[in-house]
Here is the input.
Amino acid sequence: MKQLVTFLGLGLFLFYSSSLSGQTIDTLIRVGEHHLHFRIIKGEGTPILFEAGNGDSGEVWDSLLEPIRAKTGATLITYDRAGLGASEIDTTNIGFALEVEQLEGALKELGVEEKLFVVNHSFGAFYTTLLAYRKNFDIQGMVFIDPALPCYFTPTWSKAYQEGLSDENWAMIEEYRAGLYYVLKDLDGIAEYMLNRPLPKDIRATLIAAEEILPMVKAEELQTWKDCLKSFGKTPKHRYVLAKGAGHKVWKKNPEIVVKEITRLYKKLNRKKT
Here is the structure.
């Protein structure tokens, strides 16, 4: 049975439902002049926040939530960025850094006080890296899944990618993926902005790289892409894992490695805290 509870003063609209894995909450939270859609599966300990790739809503994580919940017992949080899924968008006031600020505000509205464990995919790595850099939350650990990293997604590469999109593609993206449209319009600016905002060195992190390389990576860029991802694992407190036979959305063909690495790092860090 589902129950709607409305908090007009806070701009929250909560839909509660029960399942075997615990209470699930579908929530709209007001940030500025629009609402963001969150889904929370209640648990215990440090919450796990999932950040999707460009153009994807939080639903992209659905197949992973039950096994991760079963193995960690943690509260799981997915959400749709502005203009994606069930989230609204304020086209008069949108920007990459502002989206991260609004995410922080929404998390606090949800009752996330300090600690977080973060999982990201693709361009979601830029969002969560900035979230970690700002240090408004104590991020215990992070898992990067075939991520966008500044060593490959440079301002020069990003500008070339923008220029390579046809007018027809721009029009389709604007109509069907408004959130993605505004990110791509400023892709080179975002890349420039993140050059001097690295992931804090004290955060333990695992990178899961797909064996099958993204189609957008050109043949002459292949080694740069591989070296960029591998360099992540050479940093102290970081780990590099190659997902054999998997594509960009690693969990589609190899969900076991994703669940295993998230669970491994989460339990290791929580064991240290107890």
